[in-house]
Structures are given as structure tokens and as C-alpha cells.
């Protein structure tokens, strides 16, 4: 009998959680069951996901930013089908393949002049690893500065630059030479850079954990100090890149020209694992400095042809569908729709972000009844209140969102860049409803406790 994917999908239909629990990660399954996120999705299209019961979900998580073009985009599918049909000469390795060259050229056409070379990777973390290695090689310095709350991936170099403890606990020791400074505090970073022994400052233009933003002055002063101290500025655009914030690159908002840029997620078109580290000729030449060192930094799948096709098709769609401008305009529509909620609900303290990367910060209310409720939840677990928003957005309104990080009361949305006013209205009305209930009585807590209880019972099965 031949291989039939549809037979496998039919045979195992609905067994996703038991298989995952048995063979991959039972703790994740427990978490999903506990918070009521244990659905069996069957397909996805555009900004929507569908489950086996025919329910439609608005996907404002978009695979942590992977689905900038929405799911199952026809242009990417067609391009990948064509590539498969063409029997391309993939991964010969001792070869300089055509499509990686075209993909690199196309990416660089969208970058500032100082960026002239691309190193392809399979993920965001790998792009960051390349950036760290290239920065050390180019400067002959070892130190790397990163910020509190930073997230750059979970491999050792990237994890050494993680600005929290949650992901680090149990995995030390980390790479030597890494120093944490306070995000958006120019004095703390300047004090390190003036020692003139720092290879690079590694920062997200908007931090994914918490949707924290820095001022224009911070980034422009930092860029100047980097230049005068011979330090490279690495901007990690793995989450923010390719239009998410209403400009192709989030660093454009700050008017800076980083020495190294890392990208991934959206570049995939939602299909192929891919990333890239982009830098100047000088930086690249410092690594590939002689014939002996021609493959001194590399990985087997870096130039995978299907990934290259996905990149080219993705960049085409971003331009053709005007997605950067759409992200900017839809971001403004969100701003308009959400601003009244901050005035209306004392628990919602701030809505921040740029384009379609938006964070909602919740905080201790003033009124006595709400304060007691909020404190009760915070006592149980810091950041639990934000789960009380994400939960009902999903269970009552079928909208997928996320808590922006551990132990913080920030909810984040990363909608696909293809959404319009319909989705803005749907989300704003849903958030209004959930906040209304949160302010009214204890229904959210009761509902949430019952979801937890049901989840806990299911987990025991
Ligand atoms: C800014 C940033 N850098 C790096 C990474 C790591 O990417 P990956 O999960 O593909 O390794 C992420 C992932 O969320 C990210 O947001």
C-alpha cells in the first residue's frame, strides 16, 4: 500500500492530545487542558482556524508571528508546489545554488545600504547565534550586552542573552561575557560601552515579552554611542520584522541603521522553517576571511530550496498586497477602537505597541471591590489576571491571544497582517465584553475556576 497522508489524518483524527502527551510533552498537554485550549484544529485559512466541530477561531496569536500573511496563502502554496514539481537540485552543499543568491539579493533590496550579506538559518534563535558569532569575529571582542525582559530564543547563545529567569533556571552556566542592562535606560548601556570591550549590543526594537517600547532618543543615542565605541548594534527583528509594526523593519521607526539584523518567523510564509542574519560585507568577511574559513559558520539546511522559494514568494506577497501599509492602518484602527476601553475600565491601564503588535497592560484598580479581587488572583500567581482575559476571549469569543510573558499582566495580540476592520471590530467588542464581566462580579473567576477544574479532571484521565 502506498503512503497516503489522508489515511493517517483519518486514522488518528482527534488523538492529537493523547499522542502528544505520550510521545512529546505531557506537561504542555496538561497546561492546554487546564486553560481550556485543548481543541482539535483541522485547517486554517487567512486569519482563521477551524476545529473538528466546525467552530471558527480568530487567530490573533498567528503562531507567535509566523502567519503574517495569514494561513494557507495561495501564492506561497502555488510557489511551493511549483518548486516541488521542478525537482530542484537541493542542498548539493559543494555548490553555490541559485535560489539562495536570489533570495539574499531580494532581501537586501529592502535593507539600508550598510547591509550587504545574508546568512540563512532555520530559526530565529539560529539567526541570533550567527549574529553573536559574527559580532565577536568582526570586533575581536567577546562581550555582549542585552536587556532585561529580552527574548532572543532558547539555544545557548540566545539564552545567555535572555532577560528573565524563567527560561534560564536549570540550564546554567551560560556563555561568558554577557551582561544585562535595563531596557530604555541609556545610562546603564553607555556605562558598559565606554569600556570599549563590547562586541555588540543585542536588542529587540519592541520587546516581545511585555510589548515594551523604548524611546526614539534611546535608540538614536545608543546607535551613536555604538559608533563611537566600536560596538556593533544587533537589532533582533525575528518578531517585529517584515511589516508587523507598520514599517518593513521596526528599527526604521527609530531612524537607526543597525550593523546586524536578525529575521525569521514571517519570512517563512507560514510554511518553511527559515531565518536570516543580515550584515555588512566587512562583518561577513571577518568570518569568511580565507578559503580555509569558507564554511567556518554553516548549517546543513541553511540554503534549503523550499525555504528560499517561501522567502521569495513571501516578499512578493508583502509588496503586492501592501501588507506593511495595511499593518500600519489597521494598527491605527485598533488604536481608535481600543482607546475608549482604557477610559472605561480601570483594570486596563495601557494599550501600547506599533502596527499589529499590541500589548494590553492590566493593573491594580483603585476601587475596593476590584482591588480585592485583583489581589486575590495575584496572590495565587503573579500575572494570573491576564489569563482571566485570554481564557474568555478564547472560550466566549473564539479569539486566540496570549499572555505576553510569565509573571506579568500583559496580554499580547499579533494578528496576521491581512486583517481589516471586521477583525478589529470583532476583537474590540470581545475585549469590551470580557472587561465588562471582569469589572462586574465574580463570573470570570468562577468560569475560570471551573475551566481549571474541568481541565484538571481531563488531565487526570
Ligand atoms: C525577538 C525574537 N528573537 C528570537 C526568537 C527565537 O526564534 P525561534 O523560536 O524561531 O528560535 C524569538 C521567538 O519568539 C523572538 O521573538
What are the main properties of this structure?
461 residues; alpha/beta; Aspartate Aminotransferase, domain 1; Aspartate Aminotransferase, domain 2; 2 domains; 7-stranded mixed beta sheet; 4-stranded mixed beta sheet; 16% strand; globular; binds pyridoxal-5'-phosphate
Description:
The chain is α/β, with parallel strands linked by helices and 461 residues long. It has two domains: 16-69 and 323-460, Aspartate Aminotransferase, domain 1 (Alpha-Beta Complex), CATH 3.90.1150.10; 74-320, Type I PLP-dependent aspartate aminotransferase-like (Major domain) (Aspartate Aminotransferase, domain 2, 3-Layer(aba) Sandwich), CATH 3.40.640.10. Helices cover 44% and strands 16% of the residues. It has 17 helices and 17 strands. The strands form four sheets. Strands 4-12-11-10-7-5-6 form a seven-stranded mixed β-sheet, sandwiched between helices. The radius of gyration is 23 Å and the shape is globular. The protein binds pyridoxal-5'-phosphate.
Task: Summarize the helices and strands and which ones pair or pack.
Blueprint: H1 5-11, H2 16-23, H3 26-34, E1 41-45, E2 48-51, E3 56-59, H4 62-65, H5 74-85, H6 98-109, E4 117-121, H7 124-139, E5 143-147, H8 156-160, E6 178-181, H9 186-193, E7 198-203, E8 206-207, E9 212-213, H10 216-229, E10 232-236, E11 260-263, E12 275-279, H11 281-287, H12 305-320, H13 323-344, E13 348-354, E14 357-362, H14 368-380, H15 384-395, E15 399-400, E16 402-403, E17 410-413, H16 421-440, H17 443-460
Parallel strand pairs: 3-15, 5-6, 5-7, 7-10, 10-11
Antiparallel strand pairs: 1-2, 2-3, 4-12, 8-9, 11-12, 13-14, 14-17, 16-17
Helix pairs in contact: 2-3, 3-17, 5-12, 6-12, 7-11, 9-10, 13-16, 15-16, 15-17
The protein binds pyridoxal-5'-phosphate.
Amino acid at each position: 500500500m502506498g503512503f497516503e497522508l489522508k489515511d493517517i489524518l483519518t486514522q488518528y483524527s482527534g488523538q492529537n492530545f493523547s499522542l502528544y502527551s505520550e510521545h512529546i510533552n505531557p506537561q504542555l498537554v496538561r497546561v492546554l487542558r487546564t486553560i481550556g485550549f485543548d481543541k482539535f484544529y483541522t485547517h486554517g485559512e487567512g486569519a482563521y482556524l477551524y476545529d473538528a466541530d466546525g467552530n471558527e477561531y480568530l487567530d490573533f496569536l498567528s503562531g507567535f508571528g509566523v502567519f503574517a500573511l495569514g494561513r494557507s496563502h495561495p501564492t506561497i502554496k502555488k510557489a511551493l508546489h511549483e518548486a516541488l514539481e521542478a525537482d530542484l537540485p537541493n542542498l548539493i552543499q559543494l555548490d553555490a545554488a541559485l535560489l539562495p543568491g536570489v533570495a539574499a539579493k531580494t532581501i537586501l533590496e529592502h535593507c539600508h545600504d550598510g547591509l550587504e550579506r545574508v546568512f540563512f538559518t532555520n530559526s530565529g534563535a539560529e539567526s541570533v547565534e550567527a549574529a553573536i558569532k559574527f559580532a565577536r569575529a568582526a570586533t575581536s571582542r567577546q562581550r555582549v550586552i542585552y536587556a532585561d525582559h529580552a527574548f532572543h530564543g532558547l539555544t545557548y547563545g540566545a539564552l545567555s542573552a535572555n532577560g528573565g529567569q524563567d527560561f534560564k533556571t536549570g540550564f546554567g552556566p551560560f556563555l561568558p561575557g554577557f551582561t544585562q542592562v535595563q531596557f530604555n535606560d541609556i545610562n546603564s548601556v553607555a556605562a558598559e560601552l565606554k569600556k570599549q570591550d563590547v562586541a555588540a549590543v543585542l536588542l529587540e526594537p519592541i520587546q516581545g515579552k511585555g510589548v515594551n517600547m523604548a524611546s526614539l532618543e534611546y535608540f538614536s543615542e545608543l546607535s551613536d554611542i555604538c559608533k563611537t565605541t566600536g560596538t556593533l548594534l544587533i537589532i533582533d527583528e525575528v518578531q517585529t520584522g517584515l511589516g508587523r509594526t507598520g514599517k518593513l523593519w521596526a528599527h526604521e521607526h527609530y531612524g537607526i541603521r543597525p550593523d546586524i539584523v536578525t529575521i525569521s518567523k514571517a519570512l517563512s510564509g507560514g510554511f518553511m522553517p527559515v531565518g536570516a542574519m543580515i550584515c555588512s560585507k566587512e562583518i561577513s568577511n571577518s568570518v569568511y576571511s580565507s578559503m580555509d574559513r569558507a564554511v567556518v559558520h554553516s548549517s546543513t539546511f541553511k540554503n534549503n530550496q523550499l525555504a528560499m522559494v517561501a522567502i521569495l514568494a513571501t516578499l512578493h506577497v508583502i509588496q503586492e498586497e501592501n501588507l506593511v501599509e495595511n499593518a500600519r492602518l489597521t494598527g491605527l484602527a485598533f488604536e481608535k477602537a481600543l482607546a475608549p476601553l482604557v477610559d472605561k475600565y480601570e483594570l486596563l491601564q495601557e494599550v501600547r505597541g506599533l502596527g499589529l503588535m499590541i500589548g494590553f497592560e492590566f493593573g491594580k484598580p483603585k476601587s475596593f471591590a476590584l482591588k480585592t479581587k485583583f489581589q486575590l488572583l495575584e496572590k495565587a500567581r503573579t500575572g494570573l489576571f491576564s489569563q482571566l482575559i485570554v481564557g474568555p476571549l478564547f472560550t466566549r469569543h473564539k479569539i486566540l491571544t496570549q499572555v505576553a510573558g510569565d509573571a506579568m499582566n500583559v496580554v499580547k495580540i499579533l494578528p496576521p497582517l491581512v486583517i481589516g476592520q471586521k477583525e478589529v471590530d470583532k476583537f474590540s467588542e470581545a475585549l469590551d465584553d470580557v472587561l465588562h464581566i471582569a469589572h462586574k462580579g465574580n463570573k470570570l473567576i468562577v468560569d475560570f475556576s471551573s475551566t481549571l477544574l474541568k481541565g484538571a479532571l481531563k488531565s487526570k484521565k
